Amino acid sequence: MSNRPLAAAGRLVPLLRAGLIAGIVIAAAAYPLVAVTGLGAKATAHATEQKTRLLTTALPAETSYVYAPDGKTVLTMFYEEYRQYTKLSDMSPNIQQAIVAAEDSRFYQHHGVDPKGVARAFVSNARSGGSQGASTLTMQYVRMALRDSATTPKEVQEATQQTSLRKVKEMRMALDLEKEMSKEQILERYLNSAYFGHRAYGIYAASEIFFSKTPKNLTPVEAATLAGLVKSPSEYDPADSDQKEATGRRDYVLDRMSQLGYLSPDSAAAAKSEPIRLKLTTPPHDCAAVAEKYNSWGFACDYLKNWWSAQPAFGANRLERMDKLRRGGYRIVLSIDPKIQEAAEKNVGSKEATGSPFANGIVVSEPGTGRVKAMAVNRTYSLDLSENPQSSNPEAGPKVKANYPNTVAPLLGGGDLAGYQAGSTFKMFPMLAALDSGMTLNTSFNAPYRYRSSVYDGWAPSNASGAMTGQQTMWSGFGKSVNTYFVWLEEKVGADRAVRLAEQLGLRWRTDVDRDHASPDKAKQWGAFTLGVSDATPLEMANAYAAIAADGRYCEAIPVQSIMNRDGTPTTYATPGGIHREVAKPRCRQVVSADAARAATDAARCPTGDTPARGSCGGWSTADSVRGTVGRPVAGKTGTTDSTRSAWFVGYTPELAAASFISDPDNPFNAVGDGQSQIPIKAVSETLRDGLKGTPTRQFTPPSDAIVG
């Protein structure tokens, strides 16, 4: 009896031992359920089928784009993985052929698992002790899709761990997937999922980053270079100073393309003779990457992020919402109006006055929608604080930098900064509450220079000037900013009612002191509320006054014109009542009656030098230059704090509302001084003038006889 079969078997033993994992893989290829035995086999198979079905619909993470209002100018992007999904029809045949040649030459012959490739890998691994994987394009896509759709660290580990069980599941899913999807669909998904290095995920990003072009225009040389990267993006990186490895890998891909009939031998030879010519692009990321031309828009971009992180439509918490922004592939169009933004930038002197500790900022809001039309401050939006001086706050440490000339702090609102004491701009809230409760514009009081309050425990505020003493109505009291009149008026309507109305108009209390005073059990005694001792942001104040311009209809501040999903449909959210609404649509509600708002506007024309429709301003006002500058009907209110530590002006027309302040954000005790109190008045009046230039003049609607009194 011959011993040759036994000898041959003996020689195979070490090969089998060396290729044990590959042997399991071969068994799995032939019998995908072999590795799934026992009582859990059925459940495991069912789970695999469920995941396979998920992969037919799951899409990879995609970059979200932020556009200017034209919907075309890209301001910046948000991404965890820079990627833009691209249809196969928008990819050059060169890249389709190159990736098949590089990664899976039998892609169009097998059904998800390539038996020949598995056998070849088994023999190679057995002989060399290596770990050749024999993964087809379909298997690779399954792995990438499982990784991209993972929601827990455990799922990520299961999708990427180097085990035979993972390989078995991968094969099973690849076989099932090819029953559900065409080769073209799988190839499209693969090319949109693969990583090419340099933060380029998917072929669109790779084409742009390495060659500054779209996938549709890739040449054979470029396509072969990119296809060669998938195997090892760092090893074959063509951006390295030495392109030897990248060129060798590219040439291998070109040879394979020729062998498969995608290129003629002459074309392949000609392509191999060319050097790799890169045209590298770095895609912008996050708000700090907004182009210098649009630098001031960085503050609006930052507000967008803060607003987004507070929207339940995008997740249950801030982390989920920001993850959606970076992975969801949204198309976001900002509400900022370029004309109004340019006017705002010019009139706060953002380019000339960035070297001051005093921040002068402005926010412009649209009545009736709440859309933010401009956000500007005399600062450069930048993360680089290296050249900033030391903070002006004496309590800050020696290493604490000031907020100028560079900052990304949300100085205009929308973030976690408390804001600035807004002074007499708060007189609007008790006046509006009084009007809405049935009091009239002609409500009269003989206001003394100093008034001792019996309601507020003997508190005795005084006026800024003795010239304010005498009989006042809402028109003259508001126009001259008579403190004692408004403390008396607040007593009549109730400080708590004024506080609650301010909350309904969007104000939030961000300091412990303000929260304590605004609490239900203490708000009735907050007499100083009418004098603006609370902090507020220009975003809040512009939006609150915009509600008065919109006849008492308050709209939440919103930084976007539209938000579209990756499929081109508007992004929606479900209300508590189950109604689906677009996230970017205005969210408005009536806070006070239209007549009360019109009456408040009539009184608010007095501070600006405008003429009210129904009453008298009493001969003078605190900002009588505004009407002449704006050149159309305008209302508003000045505000200063003790020692003029900050100064404000909030003004509005029927079309726009704007709030401007000047203060030191680092040190609120660093007084701006009376000499700079006119700066916010000038900023608002000139911005309204320039922003509305060329638009028809609209009139305010006069209040009714009943509310005039």
From TrEMBL:
Q: Which residue range or ranges hold the Penicillin-binding protein transpeptidase domain?
A: 362-665
In terms of Pfam families, this protein maps to: Transgly, Transpeptidase
Q: Does the keyword Protease apply?
A: yes
Q: Which UniProt keywords apply?
A: Carboxypeptidase, Glycosyltransferase, Hydrolase, Membrane, Multifunctional enzyme, Protease, Transferase, Transmembrane, Transmembrane helix
Q: Which SUPFAM superfamilies match?
A: beta-lactamase/transpeptidase-like, Lysozyme-like
- Which branch of life, at top level? Bacteria
| Glycosyl transferase family domain span | 74-257
The record, for InterPro entries, names: Beta-lactam/transpept-like (IPR012338), Glyco_trans_51 (IPR001264), Glycosyltr_51/Transpeptidase (IPR050396), Lysozyme-like_dom_sf (IPR023346), PBP_transglycosylase (IPR036950), PCN-bd_Tpept (IPR001460)
Name under which the protein is recorded: Transglycosylase domain-containing protein
Name the species this protein comes from. Answer: Micromonospora zamorensis
